[in-house]
Amino acid sequence: MDAWVDCLSYLDDPSAEMSSVHVQSGQTLSLVIDNAQSFKHRCPEQFEALVECAAFVNWRVIFSGGSPILALAFNV
User: Residue 29: what are its φ and ψ, rounded to 5°?
Assistant: First the structure.
């Protein structure tokens, strides 16, 4: 998960070459989790880690003076 956090923390910096997916500075990437209720039921630890890591990505970016960069969209 550390590598996932590192890669997603640089979504607005293509020169970092951490990901092939990018957003413009100040914009947010939305990750849509289909069948989230099933995922949460089948893999509770992974689901919790996904939510916590997304929050940490945003915290890291905000701490560095940026705006939140990642949004999770799901219904459980």
Answer: -95, 130
* Amino acid of residue 32: V
The structure tokens listed for 25 are 């500075």
Give the range of the structural domain holding residue 8, as residue numbers without chain letter.
2-13+20-73
Q: Which residues contact 29 (CB under 8 A, 6 or more apart)?
A: 8, 11, 21, 23, 69, 70, 71
Which DSSP helix (H) or strand (E) runs through 52? helix 44-63
Q: How is residue 34 written in tokens?
A: 């289909």
* Closest of 2, 10, 1 to residue 70, by C-alpha: 10
Confidence of residue 70 (pLDDT cuts 50, 70, 90): very high
d(CA 40, CA 3): 22
Provide the number of structural domains found in the chain.
1
